[in-house]
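Question thread 4412

I'm putting together a teaching handout and wanted feedback from people who do this every day. The idea is simple: show students a protein as raw sequence, then show them the structure tokens that encode its fold, then repeat with a second protein so they can compare. Below is the first pair exactly as I plan to print it.
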Amino acid sequence: MRKKVTKAIFPVAGLGTRFLPATKSVPKEIMTLVDRPLVQYAIDEARAAGIKEFIFVTSRGKGALEDYFDTAPQLEQELRRKGKDELLEILKNTNMDSGEIAYMRQHKPLGLGHAVWCARRLIANEPFAVILPDDVIAADKPCLAQMVEAFEETQGNIVAAMEVPEDQASSYGVLDIKEDMGSIVSTKGMVEKPPMGTAPSNLAVIGRYILTPTVLQKLNKKRTGAGGEIQLTDAIADAREDGEEVFGYRFKGQRFDCGSKAGFLQATVAFALARDELRDDLWGYLNDIVHSEKAAQ
């Protein structure tokens, strides 16, 4: 019987130190691209892929993240009184029904693998997705929806993958390719942050995964890897060593690394330009900057 993916883990326990001082009081995940928090893009992508249960692995100081998904009766009442139905509809999409969302605490920053392991009791014996909100992907069909279709075909572990320059491979988990079949790539293994010049390919893993319960069993070992952390990539590679299939999936879309300031700014511009009501003003501003720079040279 083919299993469906209906649960997703969102590891959001990080401190967001690259965005200090803003993240001293604001969780990085609710910093906004245009007018929506990073985490809202992740939730919308998960919903479009058929996810029904949302599991957030958090840490101390993330109360604002939890409040974001709660109802806001006073605000809703005020919008209703003023007849702002369009804003009410937007607000409704941010609410999560009781029982639809759960929060787990990661008490120590022991790595992505440890964060996923923290949610193990809510996953039980089902395939599940992992979404890193830092990776925002603009795509006609949401990335996770593409991956769910691939999982229905393969029923194996699937990681989103993209080609990166050789000098950047040491910043990623990298696939050791067995057979390249186009969108889907079968693998011999995975290497987390290989030293410069040793990467087995230029196909890097980014923040979308569909995994089997075997990966959680491997995480039970709490084996440390690169950086002294418990790496999710290592557990996936261990599952592969035990005979489970692991596939890379070349998704269709553009990925923005919103864990970096440059990536966050690039995403902000790209998503703003995709909005009809913002495009003309923003294009005009950007063109003025370019012309000013050229004139100054």
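The second pair follows. I'd like the answer to focus on this one:
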Amino acid sequence: MPIDAAKALAAEPRSGEITWDRKDVLLYHLGLGAGVPATDPDELRYTLESRLHVLPSFATVAGSGSPGVISGLSMPGVDVDLARVLHGGQSLTLHRPIPVEGTATATGRIAAVYDKGKAAVLVMRTEVTDADGPLWTNDAQIFVRGEGGWGGDRGPSTRLEPPAGEPDRTVEKRLREDQALLYRLSGDWNPLHADPEFAKVAGFDRPILHGLCTYGITLKAVVDTLLGGDVTRVRSYTTRFAGVVYPGETLRIRMWRQEGSVRAAVSAVERDDAPVLADTVVEHS
């Protein structure tokens, strides 16, 4: 059995130092499409160092995401084919606002292993702490196709009931043709997002956008439209990756206000509103 759940869960966590500065934050925001219009005061808080606020989803790339998903897939008890791996979901908990620059310790471990029958699900948890205490916790849900069926715990369902009624706000975001080329400069160098030949081998007509880029774009839309542009109000952010996005497409981001949270659903306009992000929740103050 390529995945030994007991061994994976018992493995020693891996820790490493991560650092970031305002240039990293600015580049991340530009990779999400911030800065349009370039002189808009609401955009300058993402693009001008003297006004800079950090969008919380920056946590997924800070220090290039170290220790990272690939590191987790080499943990004891895990021996899988990367071609069978899918990023199924992402959740982020903020313990306090992310500083514009910092040095911290990132500690990664496999927090759970679930048996979904036709696939295994690994929950890779990264906890980040600096000299002042905990900063954030990232959970990446990784599906490994063909590795289930050993009779293990199926784990909790991540599917939510659809929001009721019409959305409170709908935003359409047209992606740049080079969106993935910009975003990958924040640390995800997977050729799937840049090399047409590699993308074809992986089963796609052309390179696809990083799921975590869509994740960041969606959070920015929620913050800008329903949270008054205040990034410090975000407490947690969870999503399930429901489909691919191609650079140059238009994202339709629907948002519903709830008590202490915003529900969101994201689709690709040009492909008959094909789902992209589902079960998406931003909890806020």
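Top answer:
Good format. For the second protein you could add a caption like this: DSSP finds seven helices and ten strands in the chain. The two ends are 45 Å apart (CA to CA).
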